[in-house]
Design a protein that fits this description.
heterodimer, A: mainly alpha, 7 helices, 82% helix, 0% strand, B: 6 helices
């Protein structure tokens, strides 16, 4: 667990880790996937508080479903897009190996999910104090957008280094 | 300081009903609600603000940032406590509940502005060292006020209407301040 938190800290503190082949080599795919699963599930739980508390009788199932849906959203999207991304980046001359490219993208998703999870307490507070479904949807969209933009920012920072590895 | 001064002003706010009947309960409740308003809002916003600071490469400055953020809370609480005697005088000499609510709203606004001024003074040193702090400071203001407004809405009543029975929270507490404002605008400018 300590190792996982250290990895999160390294990813946030030094975003160049996702763009340096040497740093990518030190990271483990399993650790990155576990971070995404844990932090995504954490945000899912906070997000599911609304589904649980907005009913007349407390219902735990919306929370459980959001708990697996958030990490699934990120990991399945990556799974679907990764093959084409890898093929195109290789065709365009990137020398990053299959594993290094996968780690770089997992690292970027991990950054996104960490930012998202940090908004969790705010989402939980609004969930218990808000009845309006549209407001809660909008709030979650805003937090996903902010986390996504910061993740894209990390990707953009990594791109020049991807480019320097080009033939 | 935040707890003591916040509780003191909260108790003064809650004393509007007097001490007869359930009056002491309102006083006690408001004494816990004011520090809770400060602390819980702060704690809810802190994780995301920490992550954003680390992402911006400002992790090493975070102890100083934390001090600046806490200085806002502590100064606002001290200013509120200093306004306490005036608010108490208003409580005992005014029968109009609406005026008392408005008065306390003004006191909170003044205390917050002074707290913000103090926080910005501390932040100015950080901004001078690294301009990225300016962006983060604005982010904090948006995040903190966004949560604080909803927190204040949820924790109502702070003063307690003497014509109504004692309430821990308003029956409609589980509403959303922003949704209420939008509804109000729609009602005024709509049909």
């Amino acid at each position: 667990m300590k190792e996982l938190w250290r990895l999160v800290d390294v990813l946030l503190r030094d975003r160049e880790t996702v763009s340096s082949e040497e740093a990518l080599g030190r990271m483990r795919v399993a650790s990155l996937v576990i971070i995404i699963l844990l932090l995504g599930a954490m945000y899912g739980i906070f997000m599911g508080v609304y589904g649980m508390s907005s009913r007349e009788v407390l219902e735990y199932r919306p929370m459980v479903s959001s708990m697996w849906k958030v990490p699934a959203l990120f990991l399945l999207t990556l799974l679907i897009c990764f093959p084409s991304l890898y093929v195109f980046s290789t065709l365009l001359g990137s020398r990053l190996s299959f594993l290094a490219t996968l780690k770089a993208l997992l690292g970027i998703v991990a950054i996104t999910v960490t930012v998202l999870a940090s908004f969790g307490p705010i989402v939980a507070f609004f969930s218990v104090s808000t009845e309006n479904y549209a407001f809660m949807k909008l709030l979650n969209v805003v937090f996903f957008a902010v986390a996504g933009l910061l993740g894209v920012g990390a990707l953009l920072m990594a791109l020049p280094v991807f480019g320097s590895n080009c033939r | 300081m935040i707890v003591v001064c916040g509780a003191l002003y909260g108790a003064i706010m809650g004393s509007y009903r007097g001490l007869d009947g359930d009056g002491w309960k309102q006083m006690l409740l408001s004494a816990t609600k004011v520090p809770a308003l400060f602390f819980v809002t702060f704690l809810l916003c802190l994780p995301s603000y920490f992550v954003l600071n680390v992402l911006a490469g400002l992790r090493d400055d975070f102890p100083k940032v934390l001090r600046a953020l806490l200085s806002f809370q502590s100064l606002a609480a001290v200013v509120l406590a200093a306004f306490g005697p005036i608010s108490w005088l208003m409580n005992v000499s005014t029968a109009n509940y609406g005026f008392i609510v408005l008065w306390n709203g003004v006191m909170f606004a003044v205390a917050s502005l002074l707290g913000q001024w103090r926080m910005h003074r501390l932040y100015r040193l950080l901004i001078a060292a690294n301009p990225r702090h300016r962006v983060l400071w604005r982010v904090w203001m948006v995040l903190y006020w966004f949560v604080a407004i909803q927190m204040a809405w949820v924790l109502r009543p702070f003063v307690g209407d003497p014509t109504k029975p004692f309430q821990l929270l308003r029956p409609e507490a589980w509403g959303n301040a922003y949704v209420e404002v939008v509804t109000l605008f729609c009602r005024v400018w709509g049909r």
